[in-house]
Write a structure and sequence with these properties.
With 208 residues, the protein is an all-alpha fold. Helix content is 64%, strand content 0%. The two termini are 20 Å apart.
Amino acid sequence: EGGEAIRQHPVSVRLPYARGIGHMERLDPEKAREAFDAAIFLRNKYAMAYSGRAAAEIWMEHFEGGLADVLRAINLAPRFSAPHYVRGRAYEKQHKFKEAIAEFDRAIARDSESIWSVGQRALTEAAAGNYDIARRDLEQAPRRFPGTIEAHRYRAWFLATCPQAEYRTRPRAPAEAPLPPHLPHEGPDPPRLPPAASAAPGRRQGPP
């Protein structure tokens, strides 16, 4: 999607924004932050760029700067779901699980079709010890989001890593979705932007 934005808008703010998304997809938050900086320089009221830079900062555990960018994005586009998702990831990484769940709820209220927000909320419920809630939501996810590999990846992660043995069925996890042999600490996805926010600028952003 980022490449399409570059092709269609080679000399606009979309170019550095799309580069930022590309660097996030390549797991390079430092270069992503630089690209989002360039987008913000070109348009200093661009909510999606602030949300992208926030995700990069939070990925690097620069929470103060990342949360400041989240607030800027929310003030610019209060109906935009991605800043709440990103703030939820920040709180989750800080083990502020109650606050994280509330942010994922806000993200879902703005975009009920985001498996990323639903899945991450369920994993955060599990991290908070609410295993029944997590299992319920993750068992419903493949039916709620048919055809999405993420629904199975989130459920597989829960099945493989839940600290309570009665919920953990690691042998079933590979049947749900491919998982690396050494599971990363952060979960199935790092705190990058969900796909709805990674699309060509203009989708679900709200006011510019």
